[in-house]
Amino acid sequence: MRAPLPVLDGPAAPAVPFRRLTTLWVQITGTWCNLECAHCINASGPEDPWLKPLDGATVREAIRDAARLGVKDIYFTGGEPFLHREILPLLGFALETAPTTVLTNGTAITEAMADALAALAASAPYSFEIRVSLDDVDPEANDRIRGSGSWKKAVDAIARLYARGLLPIVTATEIAAGGGTVEGLYDRFQRFLVARGITKPRVKIMPVFPIGRMPGGDALRLSAEMLEGFDLGLLQCAETRVVAAGGVYACPILAGLPGARLSTGGLEAAFGPAPLYHTACVTCHRTGMTCRNA
Question: What is the pTM of this model?
Fold first, then answer.
């Protein structure tokens, strides 16, 4: 499996000053995933991952550091987080510190796993969110992107979580818009969920980034002139840090790439400016996108 298109930062790349630690991302399984989605931003898949999973001790240390440094929320991502053998105790550990979210493709959320997640949420002192990826309300269209059988497993996972009082956030990408509007895509997902008995549907739509399995775009980079008058604090890298194999990174979209790595040591050592060196940075600037639940 190939890594995302490498893009080196240069001396002209503008940088975002670090303001505070609001969000910690944990790239818990690196790029190890049981699916191989066509639009995956970090080219995750079932083969030998180019970005390795984290061990439990490293995750706990990062969460302890984040708690000391005032973190407000924690996110687990990958790859597929539920492939990690310690995912449940690590989620529980995070929930002792801050509101916690896990991003998943839903394929590992069996009845037993849904029971375990509901028990975790019930006993946690902070709120627990689960985001389930689904790229189209149509099974065939979804499975062309995410792989055969993935639609049913994801939809079953959403139903299981909802039945237990958990309100999953269904996350899709604009790849499913098919030339339509984001608003139209959002409405389509809302109607689909309501029709399946989910009376409180929650949907998040994300743009498609020129990275991973879909590199390219116009290769535009942000410049100081383009950012003139723009509040850099609106970009998520002003308040976000990512713990992944190899160090601490500026952005969950770019985790694992050398240009986004800010430290090979502890979390606090990464509290410096984040270079806006990648084509993906243009997407965040243009769309106001955040990887958080908001």
Answer: 0.94
